[in-house]
Amino acid sequence: MRRHCTRFLILRVLAVMTLAAPMARPAAAEDFRVETQIYVGDKEEPASTNVTRFKGSVVWDFAGDGSEIVMFDKARGRFAMLDLQRKMRTEVTTGEVMQFTQQLRDWANGQDDPLLKFCATPRFEPTGGSTSKTLKFKSPLLSYEIETERPDKPEIAARYREFSDWYARVNTLFRPGLLPPFPRLLVNEQLAREQMVPQRVQLTLAPQPSHGNKQVTVRSEQSFVYGLLESDLEKIDKAAGYLVTLRNVSLAAYRGDETAAAPAKQAK
Hints:
Elements: H1 2-14, E1 32-40, E2 48-55, E3 58-63, E4 68-73, E5 78-83, E6 88-93, H2 94-109, H3 114-120, E7 125-127, E8 134-138, E9 142-149, H4 154-174, H5 182-193, E10 197-205, E11 216-226, H6 230-245, E12 247-248, H7 251-255, H8 263-267
Parallel strand pairs: 6-12
Antiparallel strand pairs: 1-2, 1-11, 2-3, 3-4, 4-5, 5-6, 7-8, 8-9, 9-10, 10-11
Helix pairs in contact: 2-3, 2-4, 4-5
């Protein structure tokens, strides 16, 4: 039961928070991967991990437990979610994602919950940037503290920001219960302005009835590895095969509900 509650908490905040083998065949220099660990509270062991691989205009996000893969194809304007345990996949277009997130914003704006209303139209007091590697975004309900690095190539920060934006949006569609993604989008905008990427992100939620009237802290730690290994390319090739072999289902069937387009259902 405790593990289930921890997983729900991680899922709820994810939208507002993303040992190498010897190199045998390097990919293009602009390709890279990001290894992420997510921790809840003061736990020393990560509650979840994932590896995100950027290859050309396509991004592949692999859950650490091997259960799911998310594919973002910018050129074709689509997302695919692959569930390897249930042997199924589903797809949505970027247009559908944008339409849903706008509906979600409208819905959250009309709620009485202060946290939902804040997430619909967030306002922060940002500090840091330019000469500082630590950025802070403060508000009475939700705050971020972000330790950053500046990649050698500005396009790395731009590509990461683009995927992070889209991933924050699509998560609210794929995963019921997530908070609206708009606070994270504001954070990503500032990171892109500074041409930085996150090394460590700490999200603090003030005590709210929705999480037991207790302060909640979730942090993610990211490690950027520039260039892809042979093993990375093999994983991508295998994942691409799943797009053909796994049966395609509707979003509602993938999520196990009949209301895939209802924002109110999503954010409860």
